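ingest -> validate -> predict -> emit
validate: passed (alphabet ok, no gaps, 135 aa)
predict: started
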Amino acid sequence: EALNLGDSGFVLLRPDEDAGKLQVIAESKEQTHGFNFPFQLGTGSLDYPHHGDFRSFDVLPGDVIVMATDGLWDNVHQADVVTRVQECRDDSELNKAAGRLAVDANRIGRDHTARSPFAERAWAENKLDFPGGKL
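emit:
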């Protein structure tokens, strides 16, 4: 079971033996009050844990769960996250994949011309021209 609140999130990846790649089995849903205004816990907030996105799913041997803040999800497309994890030959390389994802997120976050997920949502939801990544 998982509970997620705001713009952090997770994906559950499972090997698909027939396709020879990882498939997204479950993912959290971002909760926002509006564009770039995520649910948050803390002083003065009207958001509470019961507002979170609750999911229940089975986790099997070989599954990988990627949990991250908006620092990753605003800058790196989910398909690219899956690709990075898929590059691992075994579980011992997952830490390397996490490090590469952090480098990717930082690089894209600093790139003022990148087509980041954040920039794409800014345009799709509000017609805001927000090129580049987000730090």
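The two ends are 30 Å apart (CA to CA).
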